[in-house]
Design goal:
Blueprint: E1 7-15, H1 22-34, E2 39-46, H2 53-58, E3 67-71, H3 80-90, E4 95-99, H4 110-118, E5 123-127, E6 134-137, H5 141-157, E7 169-173, H6 174-180, H7 191-201, E8 206-210, E9 212-214, H8 223-242
Parallel strand pairs: 1-2, 1-4, 2-3, 5-8, 6-9
Antiparallel strand pairs: 4-7, 5-7
Helix pairs in contact: 5-8
Length: 246
């Protein structure tokens, strides 16, 4: 990980076949960052897309806020977790955030995160489960119930004390990112949980902050994804017991 002291914030956006949603996300995110006094960058990680995702990112590669396009060396789809890891290890900011390409939580929410870092927290994550969180467009009822049951299992067996591990809006200091992402092993749906488990194993201070989250159409999360996540919870538990994250 190479640091650039002129960059306060690096924003990583993993993207797989996001030609329809990525333009709006980039436009809104760039408008916000250009209004800030600090230096920033956006890194779009193309996860083996077969559409115009890469072309859209290239179209924003210049300006006061640079947009960098990354891709896996073999050009194949490796999973969201692998793409987040690739972007985080390449980012140069003193603080690093990843967000979803569907813009379900907009970049303006980082304003709520800075005070936590000022208090000494190492990781701040967006949470849909807090009293002040707002969800104007919700998931299907069955997905919400599955999520609640899954969170109970996640807290019980791998990441205690975190009410929402799965919201795709998480921010890290450079020091914390340097601890966590080189140790990340999971490439797909369970990566969020693993990141937090590694952070806790190394004594990083984690805060949850309320967010506004809108369920975006075109979600790639399926019933099979929930089962995969739960299977990976057991892998994380085994890794923790074996001390593999140390």
């Amino acid at each position: 990980m190479t640091s650039d002291p002129t960059l306060r914030l690096s924003v990583v956006i993993p993207a797989f076949n996001e030609e329809l949603r990525l333009p709006g996300t980039l436009a809104q995110s760039l408008d916000y960052l250009r209004s800030r006094a600090y230096g920033s960058e956006i890194l779009v990680v193309d996860d083996g897309s077969s559409d115009r995702t890469a072309d859209i990112a290239r179209g924003h590669d210049s300006g006061p806020v640079p947009v960098r396009l990354l891709a896996h060396p073999d050009g194949l789809n490796h999973g969201k977790g692998a793409s987040v890891r690739l972007g985080m290890l390449a980012a140069g900011g003193t603080h690093l955030l990843f967000m979803d390409a569907d813009n379900s939580t907009t970049l303006e929410h980082v304003e709520r995160f800075w005070p936590y870092f000022d208090k000494g927290y190492d990781v701040v994550i967006g949470s849909r489960a807090l009293e002040d969180s707002v969800i104007p467009v919700r998931q299907a009822r069955c997905k919400e119930l599955a999520g609640r049951m899954g969170n109970w299992i996640i807290q019980t067996f791998s990441v205690p004390g975190i009410t929402d591990t799965q919201a795709g809006f998480k921010m890290f200091t450079r020091r914390a990112a340097g601890i966590i992402f080189p140790r990340q092993t999971m490439a797909r749906w369970g990566y969020d949980i693993e990141l937090l488990a590694i952070a806790q194993a190394h004594g990083c201070l984690i805060a949850e902050a309320p967010i506004t989250w809108r369920n975006a159409p075109g979600s790639k999360v399926t019933a099979r994804s929930y089962l995969q996540v739960l299977g990976e919870v057991w892998r994380i538990r085994r890794n923790l017991r074996a001390g593999l994250y140390r």
